[in-house]
Amino acid sequence: MLLSFTTLGCPAWPLDKIIRHASEYGFDAIDFRGLQGEMNIWKLPEFSGDAKQSHARIANAGLKVSCFSSSVHAVSAEKYEQNLNEVKEYARLCEIFETPYIRVFGGKIDDLDRAEATRLMIKHLKEMASIAAASGAKVLVETHDDWTDCRYLQPVMEQVNHEGAGVLWDLHHPYRTIGEQPEDTWSALGQWIQYVHVKDSLKVDGTGRRHPHKYVLNGQGDIPLKEMFKLLQKNGYQGYYVYEWEKAWYPDELEEPEIAFPQYVQYMRKAQEEIR
Q1: Taking the model in full, what pTM does it have?
Q2: Where would I find the Xylose isomerase-like TIM barrel domain in this sequence (predicted)?
């Protein structure tokens, strides 16, 4: 298993600390989703004027950058130009850091009907995929928000049909939020799945909460992660298993990265042995 983590889990860490702990804990790669409060990381010196030096520091630690996770909502017509610019910025970084993927969201469809939302998604993703492909990368649409359901995302991917587009399967969201079974997700989207997010949770009383679930350390919840890993391996998946510990969004609820990150590596290595 190739292991990575998103920097959403360590929002206060500077780049040096991210690199040091990634290596110490036994990760293979880093997925950049913000750095010390700046989500548009291409604006930072580490990813602009000093980008080549940053890449060298990461590579010298034996690590790779598995993905740049954007804030793009592909369905949006209002922010279309802004979204294209963001993809262009990350495509530039993909060339420097030899990174294969740019994560994008489908986004909320709001008042659009599903047919019009699907049309916009296809149109916008084709353009974004062309930009990414020119830099040797792919945009990956996450199973998230109004595109969690594989029945909605499958026709988009069929019609986009571009070498620069793929799917990021967040193992948590379809199962937890709509009860979608992993076998159904894979059957519909497996041919495009390039990358997976891993996290565990338990259902809780949703009163006063953003979601009716609480994120917990892997193995402490009831998401059938090991069955999902078996399904992935059975179908030949060889990509990254990426820990998305949402510490930035739930700072008071979730354990510190010094606890969560090494626990994830230990859990995943044990799971790897068990499913062989």
Answers
A1: 0.97
A2: 20-255
